[in-house]
Amino acid sequence: MIGLLLVSHSRALADAAVDLIRRTVSATIPIAAAGGVGETHSEIGTDAIDIQQGIESVAQPDGVIILMDMGSAILSTEMAKDLLGDSINVRLCSGPLVEGGIAAAVQIQAGSPIADVVAAAQRSLLPKQDQLGEPMPAAEPTGAPAVAEESFESVLENIYGLHLRPVAALIKTLGAEAKNVQIENVTGKRGPIVAASLVEIARLQAKKGDTIRFLLSGPNTAGVRKEIESFLERLRNEDMHPAQPAAKKDNSASPAPIAVSSGLAVGRVLFADRLDLRIPDTRPNTTTEVEAECQRLTEAIGAAQQSVAQRVAKFSSSLDPAEVAILEAQELILSDDMLLGIAQERIRSKPANAAAAWFETLTEVAEDQAGAADEYLKQRAIDFREAASAVVQQLIGQTNQFANLNEDCVLICAELNPTLIDQIQSTRITGVIELGGGSLSHGAILARSIGLPVIANAARSESVLRSAEIVAIDGSTGQLLVNPAPEVIQEWRQRQADSQELQKRAVQLSQTPAISADNITFLIAANAGKRRDVELALANGADGIGLFRSEFLFDQFHALPSEEEQLAAYRDALEPILADSRWKTASESSTSNPRSSEEFSVTLRLLDIGGDKPLPFLSPGKESNPFLGVRGLRLLLRHPEFFESHLGAILRLAELFSIKLLVPMVTSVDELSRLKQHLEKAHQSLKARKLSHQWPIEIGAMIETPASAVAFDQMIKHLDFASIGTNDLTQYVLSAERGNPQLEEFADSLHPAVLRLCRDVIALANQRALPISICGEIASDPVAVPLLAGLGLRVFSVAPTAVPTIKATIRTFSLSEITPDRVTHLLGYQNAVETRQALQDR
Questions:
Q1: Per-residue pLDDT tens digits for 363-377
Q2: Cα separations in angstroms, 384 against 39, 178, 377, 590
Q3: DSSP letter at 769?
Q4: Which of 324, 319, 156 is nearest to 234 (CA)?
Q5: What are the two backbone dihedrals, phi and then psi, of residue 785, each rounded to the nearest 5 degrees?
Q6: Strand 658-663 and strand 601-605: pairing?
Q7: Is 241 marked active-site?
């Protein structure tokens, strides 16, 4: 513990500052006031003996920090220090008396070392300067005060700098060590600040090209530096598009709205930015009421944290790890003690109610972030505004702004996010229009998973929508009608009702096989990434798991997981299969006989990570184009020890479940041969350790690179099955990065170039009797399914919630309608738009 002494020419002023600190921070901190002269210290002045006694009254093993007001107070304090000699570690600090005292007290309460407490007091005017728009002072030189035992610098090379998502991951990784790390934006002359606060780091406004200095203290500087360097390496290799800026208003050059999530929606216009939080204007009048408001705020923040944590759990299997980290960053904002302290000080000093205090505090931080020079950092102000809204809603009892709508509405927002998706469900929001967004954004993926009609890229129509009363949208085509005639509204409402009835019927029949009108049976499996997906797949009648994405399970690990840890993660995710009485598992089948047709098989993809979707423990290093870099099988082959433990866990898992092994990012027979060598080593290791496992195991290739499609005739003899991954195949064939909104027109796998490659692969697989499936998003598209069936596919792996719809779609057509001539005709169009239109007109 550290003692704190406030010295002022006015004893009354020092006493009042001490009282304020005790009320706003803690009454248990060893703190005292000194100053004033005369018998009762009521006269203006300072006395060294009085200050010496004050130091002795708060002396602690870790020392005493003294804040002084000015002039002779400094001289008297220096004399008092000399009188004490070396008996007490005394540090004089130039920080302001009130702000510095509060900042120092916060750090003392947190158990920070004395150097960090001094640094916090010296920086204490920065929030006030930000609020008043004053320029931030230059950073302290690294030598003063002697805070750091080690320091190093790095130039930020990633496109978005120190943005919230990776910083949140860094703070979580450092844990308790974060308080021993300071970060300074040398280029921007901001900081240094303690790395334990996400808000403080955001205020550095560190963008691409800025030089960042890290100052380390404490007993584990070597380990902390290694963690930070690993973080910086991941930052350099992060996806170039972790999030997209919102659309600009009235952008007349922007294209028409695009289809995102199928379905029809009709309703009154509701803009997300017009929703009213109704912050109360009441004020607490007594000390008891003030403390009650502080407690209410603490409880509301806790409730909001729990709500965000539930969203993380709910959506983590539907999003990439980087997108889940955006939600985790919001969790960290809500857990920031600095924000709570500022808001509670507002409650006590104004006084203000909890909702107003929190809203004002977060609004200030958001406005500071919005003032950043970098466009992306400026856009992250939305994260603080969402944190403000989440807590205020808890405080005013309005946890869902959409719950009490009394009529059908279509929500218009900049871009969908998990919070909006979660609140929209089970309300009278019938559809969404995104001003920005795109078909591959995380909001789009979530919307499709719950069957919410959505169109995106509607910025050009914003001014018209602002004055509209009612709209109708078709999420399958991107069609938007503004203020349609009453008879058109009636027609669309009827179409909407018919569509909902069809969906209801599809769900009722989802547990039955998918058999076409001419009696051809199809298998409709589901894509999955975590336990919740598996549960949804079973509930929606999936015939298996056609693609299990391993990387979604591994984002929980911050170090290389052992074989046992990997096995446990897989077992937990797949456990719902064991509880489903309709299916047999591997453990129920005879190992000496062929696999039972009644088994619920799982096609498990090897860990598919790389520069575009990194994990903390396995980085490929810096890459200028991570989509074409060391990822998937390429990365695993470079880490043979981990690779073999990974394969060992999967072989052991296959004793319980019917597992087929899918190899990502494969381009040649040589890579398959190297995989099999590692698989053999894993088998021999398990055998030597007398660990039960499945041997041999079926091996399949993910046909997602042009090389694997073109060289499929060479690979096929080395495979037990194959699965076409059209998402990546499309981006590679069309040279158009997935998720880039400027390349949305190239994101449709119905492009003839992609379809022709698929045709050749499917034809060869069927000729050689090799099982082949498709697991890209195109498999979940009812418009595309008849053509894919015409190409020869009989196994589809789709989003879990799309299983009923795809089964219902198959029951409506006959393969006789999709003759070879018609397939040739469909593959003859010039682009995906023409192909899709022809399929819709069938």
A1: 888 887 777 666 656
A2: 52, 21, 12, 56
A3: T
A4: 156
A5: -55, -45
A6: parallel
A7: no
Question: What is d(CA 750, CA 756) in angstroms, rounded to the nearest whole number?
Answer: 10
Give the Cα separation of 554 and 435 in Å (integer): 34
Instruction: Give the helix/strand (H/E) hosting 404.
Output: none
Distance CA 96, CA 128 (A): 12
Q: Residue 451 to residues 265, 454, 750, 788: CA-CA distances in angstroms?
A: 11, 9, 22, 22
- Residues in CB range of 129: below 8 A, 6 or more apart: 135, 136, 137
- Alpha-carbon distance 104 to 101, whole Å? 5
- CA dist 727 and 758 (Å) reads 12
Give bridge partners of residue 261 from the DSSP assignment: 454
Which of 213, 220, 232, 117 has its CA nearest to residue 176? 220
- Dmax over Cα atoms in the chain, in whole Å? 108
Residue 558, Cβ density class (10 Å: 0-12 exposed, 13-18 middle, ≥19 buried): middle
**Distance between CA atoms of residues 473 and 265, nearest Å:** 5
Positions of the chain with pLDDT lower than 70, given as ranges? 127-148, 164-166, 168-169, 237-255, 274-277, 313-328, 372-380, 398-400, 440-443, 581-598, 610-616, 619-624, 626, 739-741, 842
Give residue for tokens 């005879």: 590
Phi/psi-derived region of residue 45, left when phi > 0, alpha when psi is between -120 and 50, beta in every other case: left
Q: What is the pLDDT of residue 320?
A: 54
| Residue 494 exposed, middle or buried by CB count within 10 Å (0-12, 13-18, 19+) | exposed
For 596-619, what is the HEC assignment?
CCCECEEEEECCCCECCECECCEC
Phi/psi at 68 (5° precision): -125, 155
Helices (H), 509-542: 531-539
Which residues face 701 on adjacent strands? Answer: 663, 722
3-state secondary structure at position 4: strand
How many residues appear in the chain? 842
Q: What amino acid occupies position 22?
A: R
pLDDT for res 410:
94
Residue type at 687? K
Give CA–CA dist 528/537, Å, rounded: 8
Secondary structure element (H or E) that encloses residue 155, with its range: strand 150-155
Strand partners, 98: none
- Start-end of H helices in 237-374: 287-315, 321-334, 337-349, 354-370
Return the pLDDT at 293.
92
Q: How far apart are CA 51 and CA 55, in angstroms?
A: 6
Side chain identity, residue 704: E
The pLDDT value given to residue 565: 94
Q: Out of 9, 163, 683, 693, pick the active-site residue.
A: 9
Residue 693: half-sphere exposure toward Cβ, Cα within 13 Å: 25
Say what the pLDDT of residue 596 is.
41
- Helix (H) or strand (E) segment spanning residue 806: helix 803-812
Helix 486-508 / helix 803-812 crossing angle, nearest 10 deg: 100
pTM of the model: 0.60
